[in-house]
Amino acid sequence: MTTPSENYEQFTQRVIGSLVGVDVHRGHIYTGRVSKRQIKVDVSFAYSIANGANVLFIVECKCYNRRVPVDDVEEFHSKLDDIGAHKGIMVTTVGFQRGAIETARGRGIALALLTSEFQPGELRYVVNATTTAKPGRDGGQFWQGNLRGPRSNYDGGFRFEGIGQFLGLLCLDAVEEQRQKGIAAWEREHGGG
């Protein structure tokens, strides 16, 4: 018999796995670059972007009856850093505490509420059936929602109508995060301009 957490991980894997060309792993084990320990992750996948570059996404699933606290975000950030993942996503059934949202924003971690229930002010992903899907492409499923991620200009969110747009926003987010770090480093080195 599977636990609610295992069911949620399987559901998350199926949602992401509905894409063509994306191998989704559940319970995959990575070796930490720093700790050298074996790190088991809930869900992971690599997504190929321009020129064949692969971006490693690690997804942490939180099937809680309470909002995800800040220490869970910090622990996840440590895991991402040790693995060397390019992007981290935390999904939950309930939501995130304010400190967790702020910490995720500062750490460049995307937060998602993976549920069909509306949650005001939270990121919302809904998996719906559609008759316009091409057979074999997404199994008659698509993602839609509003992404509010770590960058400060996400306050209003960005609307996405499919998983491709969602992954594109996450990749853009990772690029913007690196650009902002470069600007901050240049300003530190040159006395702020």
Automatic annotation (TrEMBL):
<dbReference type="Pfam" id="PF04471">
    <property type="entry name" value="Mrr_cat"/>
</dbReference>
<dbReference type="GO" id="GO:0004519">
    <property type="term" value="F:endonuclease activity"/>
</dbReference>
<dbReference type="InterPro" id="IPR007560">
    <property type="entry name" value="Restrct_endonuc_IV_Mrr"/>
</dbReference>
<protein>
    <submittedName>
        <fullName>Restriction endonuclease</fullName>
        <ecNumber>3.1.21.-</ecNumber>
    </submittedName>
</protein>
<dbReference type="InterPro" id="IPR011856">
    <property type="entry name" value="tRNA_endonuc-like_dom_sf"/>
</dbReference>
<keyword id="KW-0378">Hydrolase</keyword>
<keyword id="KW-0540">Nuclease</keyword>
<dbReference type="GO" id="GO:0016787">
    <property type="term" value="F:hydrolase activity"/>
</dbReference>
<dbReference type="InterPro" id="IPR011335">
    <property type="entry name" value="Restrct_endonuc-II-like"/>
</dbReference>
<keyword id="KW-0255">Endonuclease</keyword>
<feature type="domain" description="Restriction endonuclease type IV Mrr">
    <location>
        <begin position="48"/>
        <end position="111"/>
    </location>
</feature>
